[in-house]
Design goal:
Layout (H helix, E strand, L loop, with lengths): L10 E5 L4 H12 L3 E6 L5 H4 L11 E5 L7 H7 L4 E4 L13 H22 L5 E5 L3 H4 L10 E2 L7 H6 L3 H15 L1 H4 L4 E7 L1 E3 L11 H9 L10 E2 L1 E3 H13 L5 E5 L4 E2 H10 L21 E2 L2 H7 L5 H14 L6
Parallel strand pairs: 1-2, 1-4, 2-3, 4-5, 5-7, 6-13, 7-11, 8-10
Antiparallel strand pairs: 9-12
Helix pairs in contact: 1-10, 3-4, 4-7, 11-13
Length: 334
Amino acid sequence: MLPRLKPHQTTVAVTGANGFVASEIVSQLLQRGYIVHGTVRDPEDEGKVGHLKKFVGSENLKLFKAELTESAEAFEEAFRGCQVVIHTASPVTTGNSTEAPEKVFIEPALRGTTIVFDAISKASGVQTVVLTSSVASVSSNAGLLPETYVYSEKDWSPIDRMRELERWYGLGKTLAEKAAWDHELITSKRAKLVVVNPGYIVGRVTNSRHVAGTPGKWLTALKGEWESIPNRSTVPVDVSDVAKTHIRAFEDPDAEGRYVCVSGTFTHQEVVDAFNRVGAGPALAKPLDTKPYTQGVDLWDSSKCEKLIGGWRTLDQTCRDMAQSYVALGLLHF
């Protein structure tokens, strides 16, 4: 068992520090008193990193230039003197439709994981690595299991089935996570690995670029751009809970293995009702889709993660923070 770390004596590296999840991780780390090394593509691009410098405690934040798929050298500098590395960065998929999916999705994911873990291997002192994976590496079964099956950390998405059905995103996430578990740094037990597998991440955004993901879906709803409310379920998890999971994954000496991070199953109507309850829903007075209800999502046992962080934020809290952050960034007016 590793000893408990003291924030003011601990340096934590966060890769892809200006991303949606990573920004929240950085914010919470700084608030807790940790020294933070963040890797980004361009530390001078204020449009992409300026929000990080406004966080409480940002005097303890240092940004490093590092490109995920180029070389390990830049990461080695960022990881020097760190006791923990939180690897959230994912390669940006590039290329055109004529390129093989392996080159667009698989190779960048594997190369990024290898570069970061190789760099950690050369940085003496790193005790724990926390990896951001996805439920896509857990439940992309593509119909092999019944809809009533309840997924948990023990499950892995079947590689052959994903290749067969061309589920390239899930395949890339699965192979990248497996590569992390199989890396010599971890198999030799020179460092401990803990993996976080989040569902659909929502909650407050701290940079307008973050709405490119799932939060953007709810921004369009709040702007009144939906014709009707989808009659199906979703499995959201608050970005604050996801960040907290990453931090507890190294703070708690007993944390180990994988953590499925899904706060529950909600219908879209329930999410809309939550927005309305917190005063963010004038534009959400839309009818429910007349199509029959479909579950549309997998079922989860995320009790392991819930125990680690001490419980989930409520849907109302998530919706309130999400709407208020849109207003603060000038993305929404009501």
